[in-house]
Amino acid sequence: MWYAYIILSILVVFLLVYIYIRFKYGFWFYQPVFHIYDFKYYLFPPGIIDHNLPDKNKYTNFKSIDTLSFEKVTDLKMNQFINFIQLHYLQNKNNTFMPKKENVIPYFSHLNASAYFSFYYEDILLQDSKTNEPIPEKKIISVMTSKPVHVAIYNGSSDAEFDAYYVDYLCVDKEYRKKGIAPEIIQTHHYNQRHLNKSISVSLFKREGELTGIVPLCIYSTYAFSMKGWTRPDLLPPVFSIVECNAQNFHLMATFLREKVSQFDISIISAYSNILELMKTGNIHIYFILKDHEICSAYFFRKTCILVDKDNEALTCFASINDVDSRELFIQGYKNALYKIVEKNKGFKCCVIENISHNDILIQNMLLKIKPFIISPTAYFFYNFAYPTFKSNKTIVIC
């Protein structure tokens, strides 16, 4: 008899979770994602969930939303896009996000396939100041972008490789939030993207702060530290050198990446030509430890364009690869790389580290000496792909 009560209790819990997610997350309940109640996916992960092209549904809005390939985004539209995200993206009481055109465009150029921009417009009427005649105008109330990345899963006999679209700049005008705008631009962008490029079925989202009822690809914390009062670190032992990656030595980095990413269980990497362009334009900084003309370890930093307390720009270490036996050497290499970047860019006054890839080694050392002023939950999620969660220190994302 007690078996029946156990089974009934499990069914009741399952039903309550199902109802909770359906009402709390609404739109996401109907999407091809790995929901936390999809027990069959834990046992038999299917990979791609829906191989068919998406159909129109109640969330697709082709009247108000335009999706363009990056190549077709005019200078006017790009300026409108940048003005919009400066006003509405990553803005709060203490932080401001102030990218310029040269901080946005390189992320979408030199790729192996088209990137996409979506604009959600609302029709409004302006008034001519001279004639008082109404002037029809289109106001942007939401934007969203995606760029292709390459995903590789290293799992012995069931290795997998495929391309996906990394979603960024999903943003809604502050005055239009919680009005069903985000679900419409996500669904319409996905529909258009899938139909415009039928060879890529999967998307990838990054989320910070409150997490959803979706099983994450990877979950971790992001730490922010003030660099006020930091001093020059000790130099590396003489047989090692800390070197900035540039166009002349990038081939060494490309070879190192190809050889070492299989240390991780999953890698998500943009086209090397795109990484090189981001590096040339100062949007990412790559440093490596060199010994006898071979790379031992590498560190990847991003110019965030986020100003903390108005004038303290944050520099993020978003990935690292350790291939030396000495943790102390790896940590010292990071400190020297960070110091070299800050010496050239005095505006960087906040150090941010995402606890992903081999950054866990760096964070453990930092926390022994410094208290972070921000700890933020962060996660990546697949869209239209189901796979068990990867450990953050076995995941690397460079895009």
TrEMBL record:
Gene3D superfamilies: 3.40.630.170
Transmembrane segments: 6-23
Name of the protein in question: Uncharacterized protein
Keyword Membrane attributed: yes
Keywords: Membrane, Transmembrane, Transmembrane helix
Lineage start: unclassified sequences, metagenomes, organismal metagenomes
